[in-house]
Amino acid sequence: MTKVLLTSVFRPFGEENRFNKAGDEELLDYLASRLTREPGLFALSSYVPASGLHLIAANLPAETRVLETPSVDEFVDELKKEPDYVGISALIKGFGKVAKMISLTRRYAPKAKVVVGGFATALDCMEELEPDYISKGDGVRFMRKLLGVTPEIPFVHPRMSAEISLRIFRDYDFLEKETIGLITSGFGCPHACDFCSTSAYFGYRSVSFLADGAAMYEAMKGQCRESGGRVRNFLIFEEDLMLFRQKVAQMGDLIEKDQRDSLGYGCFATVKSLSRWDLEQLVAQGFQHVWIGVESMTVPYKKGTGRDMKELFDALHSFGVTTTGSVIFGLDHHTPDMLPLEARYLASLYPSTAQFGSLIPAVGTELRNRLEREGRIRNTDYRESDLFADVLVHPNFKKGDLKAATLKAYDDLYEEIGPSIFRLFDTWFRGYKNLRQASRPGLRRRADVYEQRVRALLPLFLQTHEYLPNDEIRRRVSETIKEVTAELGPATVTETGLAELYRHVFALEEAKRRYLKPVFLEPKLKVRDYTPSQEAKPPLLSMSVA
Amino acid sequence: MDALTIEETVLRHFAAIIHVAPAKLDTRANLTTEYGVDSLKALKLISGIEVEFDIDVDEKEVQKLKSLEDVVELIRTKLS
Q1: Which residue in chain B has the smallest CA separation from A15?
Q2: Among B10, B45, B51, which would you mutate to test the A interface (most chain A Cβ atoms within 10 Å of its Cβ)?
């Protein structure tokens, strides 16, 4: 049988060398580096698996092994097992590593065909590295065709999950972490925002992996069942899920009718698509988090049309739906004076988590093409391709200004509306109060879920006031705790004990931050095997921290 | 590994990258001005020799390489 090896680029990431820039390791932590990038101790942490590789692996007529973050030696060990195909997935930042991995494959598995996929394939120069194949866009169908099967046979959704915890709790195994399941509905988006690398990568059209709402529900329910009910919350990958009315409605109906498990999901959506929905219906049917690209208070994108942005965020929060709001610095109309206003505008929306980023003219996008024509791309190397890169030439900003403004905006947001984890806590509590006496059972079930979350987070805020950013945030946290305990009862003995434990962990971590050099633990190697038309086996091998 | 073998291997790698016969390469010629080596070709060359000789080359070392002779010398130093 055909043997396929699919892999991400190799570690290390935290070592500055010709493959990595200083600080690259931080970018692996999706929450701490982006959505909860906060100066204090409350930042969240999560490492998202290489979903694309697992999605491909689960859907091939071949024995397929997926490697995530191997070392060079671990990659070579796999090459020596003589796979027929070696698939390497990389972001643009990983271009140099792809070059080395192709060389390694030619040496240690000379008969293997090399396929390169991922956003790095948007680079024209990828061909110069002479892989045997370049897979742009949908890798599942590409690999199926390559292996000689029809691309449209039914899809199997692999089980994928990510753990979330406070960043400072990450390495304390005795502190429980929240696990969320990851579901890939599809990619590609018709809004065609000029900067959007994902939309461009999928040719501005929708590529579906899960055909309908029933398949989405089954993917979630199956994972919930297999985890013994531990995984009930999911993040759905789709550029704008709420555009798919039939899919969402069908999935929602099934979630609402499910009396056993209160499944919930988060997704990406737009003001435009959300404006067409009754939020109450969505919430009763498991909708619990949404990432909305705010981009700018002047809303230059058509996806921002519909309900008033502030009114929509408030409405979502009133239902306990937590939000991620993101804005872009460096749009054509921006001046230095406008950026703090943009940041303040985002703060006024009270997003549960937030992202500030420089306008990134990603390769393959319309924005990139336009800026290249206008001579506004700074020559920079592939290693600098990330959210905070300074590759845009803007008449109103000097090199470095946008990055500095972006990082400052994170700090200012923290000072103004407090830690993300508190905003999540606060929003769930508001949702609980609003929905606990709703007539619709689906809404009352959401209130129950919110109540459990609020109770679980309460100990975190009981003895950590000194670590909050300022007196105003301390006052708000105190008031919310008073409200919570008045509503749900005082902290139990267990919760008080946990609060005590958290206080010690915070004190220890604060001391480490002050007096010790930061230590970065490289991600561990993850290996997972897939056999044709079967769900993945459990991980075969899990190596310790390198 | 002796210097001659190292040189032969380097020439073979580099010849494949710029698509000329190894015998036509001048080890003292400037890589950029004579052979049009840009960052991409340099990346391929360095990746190839790292794998072939099982060495690691850092960015500062790459920047100092002006000719194939320098490449050979760098490898020789690392292997010694």
Answers
A1: B58
A2: B51
